[in-house]
Amino acid sequence: MAAPAVKAARGWSGLTLGVRSVVLRLPGITQVRWSRYGPEYRDPQIDKEYYRKPLAELTEEEKYDRELRKTQHIKAAPAMKTSSVFEDPLISKFTNMMMKGGNKVLARSLMTQEVWGSLFHCILLQTLEALKRKQFEKYHAAPAEEQATIERNPYTIFHQALKNCEPVIGLVPILKGGHFYQVPVPLADRRRRFLAMKWMITECREKKHRRVLMPEKLSHELLQAFQNQGPVIKRKHDMHKMAEANRALAHYRWW
């Protein structure tokens, strides 16, 4: 009873392999990803400079392209991309790194003071609002000769604070002779920004008091980093000191 079943299974497996080999040898067949849009749909234009350019400065080709787009089908823009003049890629990246459990509305609310319905208070703009409030309080309390030196734009403070936290040199573990050595290497721009954001978020989440709200903790750390002070700046300097101490191992980078 078992012998015919085994022969049948072997026959089906051989047939499957034969069909697969024939399909792989067929010319002109390429596996492509399915899309809901047909070939007549054009990609969306999300470049802000494209819309800011006046009509008088457009060339004949650009004018023709704009008129042609009025009658063509356009694909929907991705959810993470927008042509809004208020879009900031650095703030969007910071929001994604703050997000927990896919709750992006809550993460964005820690940086922004927007209201989504009646449940969520947007997080990133709350931080920017706290930055602006603290700087204006400092501006009104300062003498007239010092008011011009006080930065009140929260976006400028945010960008400069993260720029001050970016390390220039990092340490990479390299195996040599059965031991791992911390070898100093220069960091790429993406790695610098990632470490600055990671240190800032980690400092606010793990090193600060839990009863203090996240926007208050984040705004305090950003203000300190804007003035080249605080634990995040100290962490950057510690990495630079360790890289300086291990500079004798720098040649292991090419081995």
SSE layout:
Blueprint: H1 2-25, H2 48-52, H3 60-69, H4 89-98, H5 104-109, E1 111-112, E2 115-116, E3 120-121, H6 124-141, H7 144-147, H8 154-165, E4 169-176, E5 179-186, H9 189-206, H10 214-226, H11 231-245
Antiparallel strand pairs: 2-3, 4-5
Helix pairs in contact: 6-8, 6-10, 8-9, 8-10, 9-10
Structure described in brief:
The chain is mainly α. The chain has eleven helices and five strands.
List the keywords:
two-stranded antiparallel sheet; single chain; extended; mainly alpha; 255 residues; 11 helices
Mean pLDDT across all amino acids? 80
- What proportion of the residues form beta strands (DSSP E)? 5-15%
Gyration radius from CA atoms, angstroms: 28 Å
Uncertain segments are 113-121
State the major sheet.
Answer: 2 strands, antiparallel
Instruction: Tell me the quaternary state.
Output: single chain
State the shape.
Answer: extended
- Strand segment count: 5
Count up the helices. Answer: 11
| Main sheet strand line-up | 2-3
**SSE class:** mainly alpha
Proportion of helical residues: 40-55%
Can you offer a commentary on this structure?
It contains eleven helices and five strands. It is extended and about 65 Å long. Mean pLDDT is 80; it is low at 113-121. With 255 residues, the protein is mostly helical. It starts with a helix and ends in a 10-residue tail after the last helix. Strands 2-3 form a two-stranded antiparallel ribbon. It has a two-stranded antiparallel sheet with strand order 4-5.
